[in-house]
Design a protein that fits this description.
With 344 residues, the protein is of the alpha+beta class. It has three domains: 129 residues, 2-Layer Sandwich (Nucleotidyltransferase, domain 5), CATH 3.30.420.40; 99 residues, Nucleotidyltransferase, domain 5; 72 residues, ATPase, substrate binding domain, subdomain 4 (Actin, Chain A, domain 4, Alpha-Beta Complex), CATH 3.90.640.10. Helices cover 38% and strands 29% of the residues. The protein contains twelve helices and 19 strands. It has a six-stranded mixed β-sheet with strand order 3-2-1-9-10-19, sandwiched between helices. Strands 13-12-11-17-18 form a five-stranded mixed β-sheet, sandwiched between helices. Strands 5-4-6 form a three-stranded antiparallel β-sheet. Strand 2 and strand 3 form a beta hairpin. Helix 5 crosses helix 12.
Length: 344
C-alpha cells in the first residue's frame, strides 16, 4: 500500500448514489454533484443517450413517447449496467472539462453499500472500468461517511454512523478503521417519496409526479408530527376521478403520518444495531452519540425522532449530503486511511 500511495494513482472518488452522484477529484475536492438520472431517446429502433444528470431530471414526467427518463441505480446498486456506464462516462468527461489535463491515467474509488453482494460489486467494478478507470477500489459507505463527518475512525473508540441515502440506509458501528457491525436496509428517501405519493393518491384521489413528491418531502416532511396540522402547502396534479388537473392543500401533519413507516424502519435498524453492539463499544456510543449523514439526515426533526427512540444524543453532520464523497476523497489522499480501501 505504501507504493500504492507513493504513485498517487488514485484520482477519483465516486459516490454513486440512487438519487445523486458526486465525484471527488484528488487535491481538488468535490467537482460534480448531479442527479443519477439518464434520458434515453429511441429513433428507428436505435437508442442513444439524450441527456444526463440535471438536464435529464428536468425532463422527468414531461417527455414524448420516444424519450424515457430512468434511474440506472435502484436501492443503492446498479439496476442497468449499460446506462450506468454511460452516466459515469458522461460525469467523468464533465469533470475533465472543468480541469483539463488532470486525467491521463486515473484510478477510481467507488463507494459501496456495506451489504452489497459479489454480483453487485462486480457490476460496480465493471462500470468504473468501462468508464475509463485503470483500477477500481472500493470503500464501504458507512466508513466513508464517518471519515467525511470527521469521526475519529482510527481511534480505539466506538462510533456509530447512520447514512440515510435515497435508496438505502447504512447503519454501522466503527472502531479502529473497521466495521464492528454494519447493516444496509432498503429504506431511504425513495421510500418516503413512494409513501407520500401513495398517501396523496389514496386520500385525495390525486396523481402527482416525482418532482412534486420531492418538493413536498423537502418543504414539508418531518419525522415528528406537529402538535396541530402545522404548515400547509398547495400542490397540483391530475384528479383520478375526472382526469382533469386539480389543486389541493396538504398539511405538515398528514405528510408526517404518510412517511411514518419508512422513518420508523430507520429507527428500528438503529435499535437493532445497538442490540448487537459489544458492551465496551456501546459505552463509547453512549458518550459519543449517533451521527447522521446522507440526504435523509436533512429530513425535519429526524435527529429528535431517533434520539427519542434510542435515548442517545443524535447529531447531524455538517453538510451531510457530501459526507460520503468527502470521506472517500480523504481516504484516497491520506495514507492514514490506506486500510479502508479494498481492490475491486
Amino acid at each position: 500500500m505504501r507504493s500504492f500511495f507513493k504513485l498517487q494513482s488514485l484520482d477519483l472518488a465516486i459516490d454513486l448514489g440512487t438519487a445523486n452522484t458526486l465525484i471527488y477529484v484528488r487535491d481538488h475536492g468535490i467537482m460534480l454533484n448531479e442527479p443519477s438520472v439518464v434520458a434515453l431517446e429511441t429513433n428507428d429502433g436505435v437508442t442513444k443517450v439524450r441527456a444526463v444528470g440535471s438536464d435529464a431530471k428536468l425532463m422527468m414526467g414531461k417527455t414524448p413517447s420516444n424519450i424515457s427518463v430512468i434511474r440506472p441505480l435502484k436501492d443503492g446498486v446498479i439496476a442497468d449496467l449499460d446506462v450506468a456506464e454511460q452516466m459515469i462516462k458522461h460525469f467523468i468527461q464533465k469533470v475533465h472539462q472543468k480541469k483539463p489535463g488532470i486525467f491521463r491515467r486515473f484510478d477510481i474509488v467507488v463507494c459501496i453499500p456495506s451489504g452489497s453482494t459479489n454480483v453487485q460489486r462486480r457490476a460496480l467494478r465493471d462500470a468504473a472500468s468501462n468508464a475509463g478507470g485503470s483500477s477500481t477500489f472500493f470503500i464501504e459507505e458507512p466508513m466513508a461517511a464517518a471519515i467525511g463527518a470527521g469521526i475519529p475512525v482510527t481511534d480505539p473508540t466506538g462510533a456509530m454512523v447512520v447514512d440515510i441515502g435515497g435508496g438505502t440506509t447504512e447503519v454501522a458501528i466503527l472502531s479502529l478503521q473497521g466495521l464492528a457491525y454494519s447493516t444496509s436496509g432498503r429504506m431511504g428517501g425513495d421510500k418516503m417519496d413512494d409513501a407520500i405519493a401513495y398517501h396523496i393518491r389514496r386520500k385525495h384521489n390525486l396523481a402527482i409526479g416525482e418532482g412534486t413528491t420531492e418538493l413536498i418531502k423537502h418543504e414539508m416532511a418531518s419525522a415528528v408530527s406537529p402538535v396541530d396540522k402545522g404548515r400547509t402547502m398547495h400542490i397540483k396534479g391530475r384528479d383520478l376521478v375526472s382526469g382533469m388537473p386539480k389543486k389541493i392543500a396538504v398539511t405538515e401533519a398528514e405528510i408526517a403520518t404518510a412517511i411514518a413507516e419508512p422513518v420508523s424502519q430507520i429507527a428500528e435498524a438503529v435499535l437493532n444495531a445497538l442490540e448487537n453492539t459489544k458492551p465496551e463499544l456501546a459505552a463509547d456510543i453512549m458518550d459519543q452519540g449517533i451521527v447522521l449523514t446522507g440526504g435523509g439526515a436533512l429530513l425535519g426533526r429526524i435527529d429528535e425522532f431517533i434520539a427519542e427512540k434510542t435515548g442517545l444524543p443524535v447529531t447531524i453532520a455538517d453538510d451531510p449530503l457530501t459526507c460520503v464523497a468527502n470521506g472517500a476523497g480523504r481516504a484516497l489522499e491520506d495514507p492514514l486511511f490506506a486500510n479502508v480501501l479494498v481492490p475491486a
